[in-house]
Amino acid sequence: MKKLFVATDFSDVSLNAVNYAADLAVHLQASLTIIHVYESPMFYTAEMPYTAIEAAENLARTEADTKMNALMLRMKQSHASLAISEVIKRGISAETITETADGEGADLLIAGATGAGVVERTLVGSTTTALINKSKCQVLIVPENATFKPAAKLVYTTDLKDDNIKAVNDLIPFASSMNSELIFLFVDDKIHTDSEKISEDMSHKIRQLVHYPKTSGYICTDPNVMNGISLFIEKQHVDMVAMLTHPRKFPQMLWDKSLTKKFSYHPNVPLLVLHANH
């Protein structure tokens, strides 16, 4: 990974993600671009004079420039060796961010975990979730107050299907850069009795499909998959979780939230999202 993008709205959560991204970029010897997208500050009416519209737009841009200039100054002072640049655009936040990052060949898009209310989760989805839906590159979701450290334990959640396990090869360059132990985790929510057979099949598929020397596999049973993952993270002191997500189309995305999307609202550790078919 040589080209990192991090999105910010200058909130505390997103500024923490910027700091995390900068430390990660230094570790990877990569460049970092900080992107901010501002939207129109008000609703316009046909009766509103053009001068008022122009003044509002100019004010929004000036405020964005001022905040970005202050942020860039701080980052250049704290990360003097880092190749860092900025992008400010007017548009719809998630769409403009992902179009810009993908258009400039980003290897990784980083954002803070923003959470969402019940209505927003159902009808709209948080900006973070929208980034996951729309981005073509891998997306890293950084929890509030997380600080960067190489992920000694990197967990990849799996449903044990061949395409899911094979997709982890896209994660190997990232895992290699941190010398991570790559841990495959299967949460058995059906509470199968033949766990030994599942374990044998899991081990066989990993050896056959994955080309990485430091791998291990775990199976835990829990009727709630999210709960099973969270308990494993806590007990094993996991540093980062990786998940594979598949594209969903409207209206399926309203009612059929994937495990990845659910986990992204309030991750306990950084969440790295891989995209199927990308």
Can you give a write-up of this model?
By secondary structure, this protein is of the alpha/beta class. It has two domains: 3-142, Rossmann fold (3-Layer(aba) Sandwich), CATH 3.40.50.620; 153-238, HUPs (Rossmann fold, 3-Layer(aba) Sandwich), CATH 3.40.50.620. The chain has helices at 12-28, 50-78, 93-103, 118-123, 127-134, 162-166, 172-177, 195-209, 225-236, 252-255, 259-265, and strands spanning 3-7, 31-38, 84-90, 108-112, 138-142, 153-157, 181-188, 215-221, 240-245, 271-275. The protein has a ten-stranded mixed beta sheet with strand order 3-2-1-4-5-10-9-6-7-8, with helices on both faces. It is elongated and about 70 Å long. The two termini are 16 Å apart.
The coarse silhouette is elongated
Helix/sheet category:
alpha/beta
CATH superfamily annotation of the largest domain: HUPs
Order of helices and strands: EHEHEHEHHEEHHEHEHEHHE
Widest β-sheet, arrangement of strands: 3-2-1-4-5-10-9-6-7-8
Report the sheet-strand fraction: 15-25%
Mean pLDDT: 84
Low-confidence parts lasting 5 or more residues at pLDDT below 50? 115-125, 249-256
Computed over alpha carbons, the radius of gyration is 20 Å
Q: Tell me the helix content.
A: 40-55%
